[in-house]
Amino acid sequence: MIGIICAMQIEADGIIARSEQANAEEIAGMKFISAKLCGKDIVIVVCGVGKVNAAMCAATLIQRYSPDVVINSGVAGSLSPIVSIGDIVIATKSLEHDMNTTALGDKQGEVSFSNGKVTYFECDKEASTRLASVCKKIPDTKVAQGIIASGDIFVSDRRKRLRINDQFGALACEMEGAAIGHVCYCFGVPYGIIRAISDDLDENKGMDFVKFCELASKKTVYAVTEFVKEF
Q: pTM here?
C-alpha cells in the first residue's frame, strides 16, 4: 500500500478523482482517504502546514495503515538558480534547517536521538529514482534531484534562501517534507518527496500563486499517478 501525503487539497482532489472505491476516515481532524488507483491500494491525506502537522499526519498514516512507502507532494521555494518556477525537485534526502541546538555543541540541523544524531533523512533510492523518471515525461518541465530543506518558517528573503543553500546544499525549501522524513526514519518506512517550485530567487515576481498551484497540482497528480502505476 502507498501512503500519499499532499500539501494542497487540490492535489488530493486530483488523485481522488482518478481513484476508485474511495472511503474516508477522519483521525485527529485529518481526513484519510483509502482507495484504489491503477489497481493499487493507496491512502491519501492532506497534512496541513508545518512540521508538527506533517509529523502527526505521517505517524498516524504509518500506525493506522502500514504503508510500504510514503510519498509527500506539494510546492517549494527555490534555494538555487539551478531550479526556477515550474521546475520539479525530487528529494534525495531532507533536513530540518531550523533545528538549532548549536548552543549545546551540535551542528545546525542536527537532530538528536537516544542512539545518535542525524542531520539528513535519506529518501528511498528506488522511490526517488522512479519519481524522477515519471516527472521527466512531463512536457516543458526541468527535473532536478537533490536535498530539500524544511522549517517552520516561510522563507521569502533571498539572502536567507542562499544561506540555507550554502549551509546544507539544498535546492528547495518548504515546511513539511523533512518532518515526514523524520517520522519515516523512526518507523523504518521508505519515503520520497516531490516538489514543484512555486517561487524562485527573484521572489516569484509576476506569477499568480493560485494559478501556479493549479499548474503544479496537474504535474504532481500526474507524477504520483504514474508512480503508483509503476509501483
A: 0.94
Distance CA 193, CA 71 (A): 6
> What is the rounded CA–CA span in Å between residue 178 and residue 188?
14
Catalytic residues: 11, 199
How many residues does the structure list for the chain?
231
Following DSSP, what letter does each residue of 69-107 receive, concatenated? Answer: EEEEEEEEEESSTT--TT-EEEEEEEEETT---GGGTPP
Give the type of residue at 27: I
Strands (E), 123-208: 143-150, 170-174, 191-199
**How does pLDDT run across 96-147, given as a tens digit for each residue?**
999 999 999 999 999 999 999 999 999 999 999 999 999 999 999 999 999 9
* Inter-axis angle of helices 177-187 and 51-65, nearest 10: 40
| Alpha carbon distance 228, 131 (integer Å) | 10
